[in-house]
């Protein structure tokens, strides 16, 4: 990751975005696109706690009316803690996952009992409260208290992993920590909400709206997609025939000689050239000591490799073993797992011998 935006000169491949520039672009976007949500009308750790518990399993539009009614009935942690459980469950009715309501009520009671109604401002204590996992605890700190903590929900994880090409786990947390350390002071709430909104409105899980997106020129995800599509365009289509030659419980494997899997064990194959496949099957029988008795067209399987897209017509040939083998082996179906067969052959076996082959 680059650390200094001056590193980049005009016309240069922009490389990965530096953190200051990421924050600047994100905040610019957020200034025009911030979602107006009721738990953002007024901030308090209690409001964040209620909202995040509700949002844990439920979509935003459904949560909004419940949140408003809940806050009206239980405006603070004392009101919630002192309410009978039935009343809390009644306010939750229809929102589902009632364990959340039980936990929220218990958490409020402990906060009143042990912390004089003050929601703890450290992650360890928060996580000891019922129903509060790492995400909700971080949201209370980062949004409720505006402390320099990033709440990594699914949306935020997706945005960071796509823009910076970060992997799940330590790599993602490291980027989160770096972002927090680079953000202007007092902006934790802003950063958390901006990332959440960006992930919910632009960088969508299935169909990210990359055009336009403030990070599109720098985004690792877009670059990788471009590479992948260039590779796809470069792949040559290979149309081949694959023979699944069976004799009783055994299948014929040969050492491949062609350009696809040179030197690997696999099923006999040849490029399609319009010749009647029976001629090829007869030649195979002579070469490998096999007498073909019946031939069945099973269909087509496809697989893509780095340089080729392969479409394979699968022929099942039933017969019996005859002479000595050279460069081939008869292998029992149950022993096939011992051979590192390329995926294309496994697909062909599954299509040609669905009864015998167990992948
Ligand atoms: S360019 Fe696409 S994938 Fe990258 S951050 Fe923007 S929306 Fe997400």
From TrEMBL:
BP terms from Gene Ontology: base-excision repair; mismatch repair
Gene3D superfamilies: Helix-hairpin-Helix base-excision DNA repair enzymes (C-terminal), Hypothetical protein, domain 2, Nucleoside Triphosphate Pyrophosphohydrolase
EC code(s) of this entry: 3.2.2.31
Residue stretches making up the HhH-GPD domain: 54-201
Catalysed transformations (reactions): Hydrolyzes free adenine bases from 7,8-dihydro-8-oxoguanine:adenine mismatched double-stranded DNA, leaving an apurinic site
CDD domains assigned: ENDO3c
Claim: Plastid is one of the keywords in the record: no
Cofactor(s) listed: [4Fe-4S] cluster
Class in the EC hierarchy, top level: hydrolase
InterPro entries named in the record: DNA_glycosylase, Endonuclease-III-like_CS2, Endouclease-III_FeS-bd_BS, HhH-GPD_domain, HhH_base_excis_C, HhH_motif, MIG/MutY, MutY_C
GO function terms (MF aspect): 4 iron, 4 sulfur cluster binding; 8-oxo-7,8-dihydroguanine DNA N-glycosylase activity; adenine/guanine mispair binding; metal ion binding; oxidized purine DNA binding; purine-specific mismatch base pair DNA N-glycosylase activity
Alphabetized SMART domains for the sequence: ENDO3c
Pfam family of the protein (one): HhH-GPD
The keyword GTP-binding is assigned to this record: no
Keywords from the UniProt entry: 4Fe-4S, DNA damage, DNA repair, Glycosidase, Hydrolase, Iron, Iron-sulfur, Metal-binding
Family: Belongs to the Nth/MutY family.
Function, as annotated: Adenine glycosylase active on G-A mispairs. MutY also corrects error-prone DNA synthesis past GO lesions which are due to the oxidatively damaged form of guanine: 7,8-dihydro-8-oxoguanine (8-oxo-dGTP).
Protein name from the UniProt record: Adenine DNA glycosylase
Organism whose genome encodes this protein: Candidatus Caldatribacterium saccharofermentans
Lineage of origin: Bacteria, Pseudomonadati, Atribacterota, Atribacteria, Atribacterales
């Amino acid at each position: 990751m680059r650390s200094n935006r001056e590193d980049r000169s005009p016309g240069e491949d922009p490389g990965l975005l530096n953190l200051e520039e990421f924050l600047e672009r994100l905040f610019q976007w957020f200034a025009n696109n911030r979602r107006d949500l009721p738990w953002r009308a007024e901030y308090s750790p209690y409001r964040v706690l209620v909202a995040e518990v509700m949002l844990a399993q439920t979509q935003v539009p459904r949560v909004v009316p419940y949140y408003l009614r809940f806050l009206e009935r239980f405006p603070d942690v004392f009101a919630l803690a002192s309410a009978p459980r039935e009343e809390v469950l009644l306010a939750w009715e229809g929102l589902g996952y009632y364990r959340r309501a039980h936990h929220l009520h218990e958490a409020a009671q402990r906060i009143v009992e042990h912390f004089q109604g003050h929601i703890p401002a450290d992650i360890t204590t928060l996580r000891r409260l019922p129903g509060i996992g790492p995400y909700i605890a971080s949201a209370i700190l980062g949004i409720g208290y505006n402390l320099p903590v990033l709440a990594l929900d699914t949306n935020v994880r997706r945005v960071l992993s796509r823009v910076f090409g970060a992997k799940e786990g330590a790599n993602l947390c490291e980027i989160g920590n770096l972002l927090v350390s680079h953000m202007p002071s007092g902006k934790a709430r802003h950063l958390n909400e901006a990332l959440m909104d960006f992930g919910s409105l632009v960088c969508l899980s299935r169909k990210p709206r990359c055009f336009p997106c403030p990070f599109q020129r720098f985004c690792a995800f877009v670059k990788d997609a471009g590479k992948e599509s260039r590779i796809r365009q470069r792949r040559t289509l290979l149309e081949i025939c694959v023979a699944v030659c069976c004799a009783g419980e055994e299948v014929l494997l040969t050492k491949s000689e062609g350009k696809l899997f040179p030197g690997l064990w696999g099923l006999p194959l040849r490029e399609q050239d319009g010749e009647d496949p029976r001629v090829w099957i007869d030649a195979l029988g002579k070469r490998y000591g096999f007498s073909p008795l019946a031939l069945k067209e099973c269909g087509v399987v496809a697989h893509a490799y780095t340089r080729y897209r392969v479409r394979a017509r699968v022929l099942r040939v039933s017969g019996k073993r005859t002479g000595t083998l050279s460069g081939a082996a008869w292998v029992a179906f149950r022993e096939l797992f011992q051979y590192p067969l390329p995926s294309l052959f496994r697909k062909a076996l599954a299509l040609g011998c669905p009864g015998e082959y167990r992948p």
